[in-house]
Amino acid sequence: MLAELFINNFVIIKRDHIFFDKGFNVITGETGSGKSLILDAINIVLGKRANKDIIGKFDNKTIIEAVFLLDDRLINILEQMDVVFDDNKLIITRTISDKSSSIRINGRITNLNLVKDISKFLIDVYKQGDTNIFMYKNNYLDIIDSYKNDTESNSIRKKLESLYIEKNNFLKKYQEFDLSQEEISREKELISYQLDDIEQVDLKNINEEKLDQEYKRLNSVTEIIECIEKCEEHLSSYDYDSPSISSMLASLSSSLSSFSNIDDNIKEINSKVDELIDSVNEIYSELDFYKDSLDQNPERLYELEMINQKIFDLKRKYGNNIEEILTYKDKIKKRYDELDKIDNYKDKISNSIKNIDESLKSMAKNLSYIRKNKAKELEEKIIIEIKSLNIKNADFRIDFSKKLRIDPNGFDNIDFLIKTNKGEELKSLSKTASGGEISRIVLAFKKVFSTFDNIDTMIFDEIDQGISGRTAQIVGEKILDLSKERQILAISHLPQIASLSNNHILIEKHDEKSLTISSSTNLKGEERVNEIARLIGGVDITDKTKDSAKEMLDMAERLRKG
Predict the structure, then answer these.
(1) Most buried among 110, 208, 350, 469, using CB within 10 Å?
(2) What is the C-alpha to C-alpha distance for residues 241 and 98, in angstroms, rounded to an integer?
(3) Which pLDDT score, from 0 to 100, does residue 437 have?
(4) What pLDDT sits at residue 213?
């Protein structure tokens, strides 16, 4: 349930901290006082897109924070969505400024998509005038299938979707084989050309790195020989004007030898110099041997150039690298084999499609049977609930018709039909009811489905529009009945509804210097009596309206306890 809502610098709300109770919470206030801002704040903290216009004039950023108290079932669900808990609280914090925006779950940065996914388990909102799930025909199949949390319907629909995708893949494959003999010959000719083109190089046994290294070496033989000869001059040269490494080391050894017999340290150093002389001579010999082995080999260089060019051309035509080219080669070889046996493949695909069609037909028939059984029960319950909401002449039917083709949802078309007055024909729900009737019909649906969904909190925004008197009392009692199973938040203008709540929140606005500020108060005792009296009588509150308010609150208390 929603336990707390903290709002800072949101439009005309400077700073507000609202506490909600279990059961029935009502929000009242004069028109324009900021009641709808509370709902807007809840929607924004639950992931609704928000622009910079919501930032108030009291600070440079807006902060909205909602605290939910969850049971173990919901905690387990959210933990599987990687939400981390320290206790049973879920705290969602949304911060919005001119420069940046952030959203946190239990103190950890997250993204709007995750919050939106989580919100589906937390709150169900009905706002007068919104396109509601029960008013939109495309939702009706989902509504029927979700009734009673029926796992069998969901299982069949998943299988239908999987088979439908499989059938479409087969149909695409069949279209690939739906060719004339001329088209087959032309495609086989193209594939043969491509295979010959690729097979000009033994790609499987080519190491591009070694090939490139060999090419660069052969292409640089002259420069390598020149480099070796230069190195040999530095190592050992008979030019006295340019002493070599060998001559310098020999001179160094000769100088040290004079003292080697009398100084062991000199002797050890001289030994190291002699080792250097041996190493230099060895390097010289290896360079000289390698120089003699070098062969410019223009024929091999030309061959490598041709191979490299061919690989480049193949990459340009068939793939970005050798692996992709070989994959493409396997693909077209398979296609060539298929074209060779095209009639057999077409027969196999046709048989597969036929088998899938039979399975789709059987599953769709089974699903339709389940839906029609559920529809009968649902019709009865919806009619009972609608009539209990003072639409005495209501009738409700779930109309089934058959689609021309089976899709992932089966072959059913469903429409919700209703009439609310005698002498009327049954018409589609979205086209027949008035605003006040729609509110009650939605309430009836939510009452029927409340047994099967697992959402802890329901919000009704001005569900009392278009109703009054006895009807308002009935609607209020229905909401009170719902609140025994879950938390209800309702924005209302009617005393019949407001008086039935166990937590009454008043939204007011006042001026502070040059700014208007909206704030909330949890009403108790005489404050609540005055607000119910205002809802009954308007601006002028008399002793009579206060007595009526007290009587209404006393009656509501008896209803809550009864």
Answers:
(1) 110
(2) 77
(3) 74
(4) 84
Q: Are strands 24-28 and 503-512 parallel, antiparallel or unpaired?
A: parallel
Does 433 score more than 60 pLDDT?
Answer: no
**What is the model's pLDDT at position 543?**
87
In the predicted model, is pLDDT for residue 165 greater than 90?
yes
**pLDDT of the residue at 131:** 46
Is 70 exceeded by the pLDDT of residue 122? Answer: yes
CB count, 10 Å around CB of 465? 15
What does the buried/exposed string (b/e) look like for 9-32 if buried means 16 or more CB atoms within 10 Å of the residue's CB? Answer: bbbbbbebebebbbbbbbbbbeee
Q: Per residue in 497-512, pLDDT tens?
A: 999 999 999 999 999 8
- Of 61, 123, 134, 71, the residue nearest 92 (C-alpha): 123
Cα torsion angle, 41, 46, 51, 57, sign:
positive
From residue 271, alpha-carbon distances to 48, 260, 328 in Å are 83, 9, 65
The torsion angles phi and psi of 505, rounded to 5 degrees, stand at -115, 125
Rounded to whole angstroms, the Cα distance separating 552 from 546 reads: 10
- Chain-wide mean pLDDT for the chain? 88
Tokens of 495: 């005393």
- The answer to whether residues 475 and 386 touch, using CB atoms and an 8 Å cutoff, is no
What number is the average pLDDT over the span 251-267?
A: 86
In this prediction, residue 241 carries a pLDDT of: 67
Question: Phi, psi (5° rounding) for residue 414?
Answer: -125, 140
**Contact partners, residue 55, CB within 8 Å, separation at least 6:** 9, 10, 61, 62, 96, 97, 98
Looking at the DSSP assignment, which residues form a beta bridge with residue 104? 93, 109
Does the pLDDT value for residue 276 go beyond 70? yes
Evaluate whether 472 touches 496 at the Cβ level (below 8 Å): yes
CB 122 within 8 A of CB 457: yes
How far apart are the C-alpha atoms of 390 and 436, rounded to whole Å? 11
Rounded CA gap, 327 and 339, in Å?
Answer: 19
* pLDDT for 316: 92
How far apart CA 36 and CA 1 sit, in angstroms, is 20
What stretches of 420-561 adopt beta strand conformation (E)? 427-428, 457-461, 487-491, 503-512, 515-523
Residue found under tokens 């660069």: 216
DSSP structure string for 138-179: GGHHHHHHHGGG-HHHHHHHHHHHHHHHHHHHHHHHHHHH--
Q: Judging by DSSP bridges, how do beta strands 24-28 and 61-69 pair with one another?
A: unpaired
Q: How many CB atoms lie within 10 A of CB 428?
A: 13
Q: What is the mean pLDDT of residues 229-247?
A: 78
The sign of the CA dihedral 497, 523, 64, 116 is: negative
| Pair of tokens at residue 413 | 């078309």
Distance CA 54, CA 236 (A): 84
With CA atoms as reference, report the closest residue to 555 among 508, 504, 496, 514.
Answer: 496
* pLDDT tops 80 at residue 240: no
Q: Is the pLDDT of residue 22 over 90?
A: yes
Alpha carbons 145 and 139: distance in angstroms, whole number: 10
